[in-house]
TrEMBL record:
Residues 49-130 form the Carboxymuconolactone decarboxylase-like domain. Keywords: Oxidoreductase, Peroxidase. This is Alkylhydroperoxidase AhpD family core domain-containing protein. Gene3D superfamilies: AhpD-like. Pfam families: CMD (PF02627). It comes from Streptomyces atratus. It comes from the Bacteria. The keyword Ligase does not apply. SUPFAM superfamilies: AhpD-like. GO terms for molecular function: peroxiredoxin activity. The keyword Ligase does not apply.
Length: 191
């Protein structure tokens, strides 16, 4: 698979009337950036730079000691649950750039039926990600926590919880402000 793509518009938030196209190795359009919804603000990071910088630092700090591929799986799964197209675009590309396979990324939304694709440690992280992200019971179930605690030492677990919490915050910024997916390039954001 050729991961390099040409981008006709290299901006984080295209103007409302701009259409950008990406192409894959077959040279047909894969994404037309004529968003379903216009962004609510142009870009929030410029309007609240101190908050953005703090989030970038928090994101970098939360990932310390975590396997980079595992961290991207966590970000992708939380972004799927939160319906965050911008973060799905970003973290899928980052995962591919970090060496993750397309197959494992595709299977992530149905990981319970395809557990053989993932290590026990990754499954524990994915389950904890779901429990923290959804919080349907109002708490993280003990069995989910205990499974994660068996796979991660306390420092890793603390960073994993921080990474899950941080991606949930990023998802909420992106969904609320309607950040437009499709134009992120891996490594574009420096931490």
């Amino acid at each position: 698979m050729n991961l390099s793509q040409e981008w006709t518009i290299p901006v984080r938030h295209p103007p409302r009337n701009v259409v950008a196209m990406t192409t894959n190795e077959h040279s047909h359009p894969t994404t037309g950036l004529n968003p379903e919804h216009a962004p609510r603000m142009q870009p929030w990071a410029e309007l609240a730079p101190d908050v953005y910088k703090a989030m970038v630092r928090l994101d970098a700090a939360s990932r310390k000691g975590l396997d980079p591929v595992l961290a991207e799986l966590v970000k992708i799964r939380a972004s799927q649950l939160n319906h965050c197209a911008f973060c799905l675009d970003m973290h899928t590309k980052d995962a591919l750039a970090a060496g993750e396979s397309v197959e494992r990324i595709v299977q992530l939304s149905a990981w319970e039926e395809s557990q053989h694709f993932y290590t026990p440690k990754e499954i524990a992280a994915i389950e904890l990600t779901e429990a923290v992200t959804v919080l349907t019971d109002g708490f993280v179930p003990d069995e989910v926590w205990e499974k994660a605690a068996k796979q991660f030492d306390e420092t890793e677990l603390a960073h994993l919880v921080a990474a899950i919490t941080t991606i949930n915050a990023w998802n909420r910024f992106a969904v609320t402000t309607r950040m437009v997916p499709g134009h992120y390039k891996p490594g574009e954001i420096k931490h």
